[in-house]
Amino acid sequence: MKSLYKTLLFIAIVFSSIIYAQQTQLEAKVNGACGMCKDRIEKISKKYGASIAEWDAETLILKLEFDQSKTSLDQILKKIAEVGHDNEKYKTTQEVYDKLPACCHYDRTVTFDKKEEKRTSEEMKMDTNSTKKEEHNHSEVIDKAIQEVKLTKVQDATAINGKSADLTYNIGKKELLKAACCNLSESFETNATVDVSFSNAVTGTKQLKMLGLDQKYTALTKELLPEIRGLASAYGLNFIPGRWISGIQLTKGGSTVVNGYESITGQINTEFVKFNKNPENTINLFADFNGRYETNFTSTSKLSEHWSNSILLHGNVTAGEMDSNNDGFLDRPKGNQINAAYLLDFNDLENSGFGSHFGIQYLLDKRIAGQIGFDDKLPQSSQNKYGVNIDINRFQVWNKTGYIFKGKPYQSIGLMNQLTYHKQNSFFGYRNYFGEQKTFYSNLIFESIIGNTNNKYKIGGSLLYDDYNEDYLTLNYKRTEKVPGVFAEYTLTGTKFTLVAGSRLDFHNLAGTQFLPRINFKYDFSPKTIVRISAGKGFRTANIFAESQQFFASNRTLEVTDNQGKIYGLKPEIAWNYGISLQQEFKLFGKKASWVTDFFRTDFQNQVLADLENPQKIVFYNFNGKSYANSLQTQLDFSPAKNLDLRLAYKYYDVKADFQGGRKQVPFMAKNRAFFNAAYSTKKEGKDNFWSFDTTLQFVGKQRIPDTKSNPQNLQLPEFSESYLTLNAQVAYQFNKHIRAYIGGENLTGFQQTNPIIEAQNPFGNYFDGGMVYAPIMPANLYVGLDVNF
User: Fold this and answer.
1) To the nearest whole number, what is the mean pLDDT of the chain?
2) Where is this region: Disordered (predicted)?
3) Is the same domain home to 645 and 760?
């Protein structure tokens, strides 16, 4: 009997071995976009012989197990293509693709290297790990709300996220290289959505405007962490070097509730350079003809199987003394900046499900402005030259840790934490300003599904702690803002629509409890015709000193009208934003083109106005009445020839508020703006050397200037400014994969505002004012640069 058992056992083992030997485990890349794609791909795989089929929407990897005597990888992939999904061996027909539900329309420009067909399963697993590492080292580990960024067309410089319910533009490295892009403020000079302007004629700082409103109403984040806010509002755009940026996500209108309550007109999120499959070291050298010099160094490398890091260094010096209009004042400040960051990433998502990102950054920024001959080594009281001295120290440390549940790629939990210390010591003539800010931010997010991936939800809580200490003249202002909050967001994906609805409840110790609902809806009439609708509420507390430093370079007295609020005597700013957009893709001259038109309206329930209508003072108060901004933009992108991309845009703004003197158009906001960008390259397949040419022409219509009629007649400004054109251009040559040189020019039309400083000859007099700026204050400027990758 024992021998019989042994014989049967031996036969069973042999039979099982034969069966197992016939079971083949392979992986293949298959295009798809949603939960419905997953069901379809797995169902057809099993129908045609797979015993196990698992498709991952994030990596596009299909894992198969099948009996090789009954079917083959080739047969399964062919059948998958027949139902609408491109893969590494077969492509579906356009007719079949078009019949897929709108939510299943993946990006067909994502192609697969044919060499992958010959690779082993283990090699493809290594690529999968690398891909996951790249994605999840970014904010996707913590907040999958921007996962779809990876599906955008990689060859496009700027592309609309077609899967997103909100209107989000993904700006890639190709777009950033079209201009000098020394810092974040210059990253949008080839983008029609954001307006970039100088804020005053003394400190030379630039500000962004979106949807007709100042940058303070846009949430400016770094890797989804709060970045340019509070005391950093005036100069924060200079704190992010352009060469550190790997990509930007720009959302118009109210963004997701997950990222906080301060977004009113939209969100601009910046991603830093990180390790991507291969180590990379880059050096950038830049110089312009007016005495600005800059060096950037970035290095990314893999430390071990699960660890990688990035080293980011930046330094700049502005040494030239330029006074092109002979008013005795520098056209832009002198100074220098030292900026360093270190990023450390951990990824073990494949095994433990954990991923973590750590960052630390330190910055020293010094700028000196004012009259030529001003000595910054002497106190202002010891000399008769008007001077401006601004010293900024900034330190940040942050961490984002996420966990993806085993066997549930749709379910994750993430925690973000950030500490920020910011200090500014400055004086503007006899006017001193000191500011110190200590901030702690924390955000916990849990994401999962209800039944299937067509029903997703996010819940979580956040904490924002701000401690402010400010000295202005002889006054001291201290306050601590504590804001715990909770939020929930639901995403419903249908065959032709996506709905994202969420709300926040924030408990502000000084501004009171705030309830903020937001909704975004996308409907696909066809794969090429998409309509989006959004509505949302946001609030913020005004930092009137930090946000109004452009007016410190004047002799205006500063007044605050007490409105019984707890922050400078002012109440919080509260606003609703509504938007609608139409996205249409079509053929123009036989070539692919896209047209986007959007309209947004912002209605303030409460706003802090900076009233400049009396040239002798600036008055802050909560308005009594109405304040609104209407923004209409239409944009056409098309490629009439190979390697030639054209962009045309027109914007109309209607921005008004009830000032103490009545309803008026908000100053320094042109009603009409037009934009044209052309980009051409000689790049050919298989060639590493090529030329690229980029040019941007902008028209800025007339703007209302604050009332100066009470000034002496020779110091009065017209009611409206003149219209003007600016032209920027750049030519670059790529020698090989490692070396790129470029030369360019800014404001090549040479338009300058006439006498941007009122009474510049008497800066300590009653009428001196350097804040009435509506146009460029510097003449045409040329620059050169060199990029080296090794």
Assistant:
1) 88
2) 116-139
3) yes
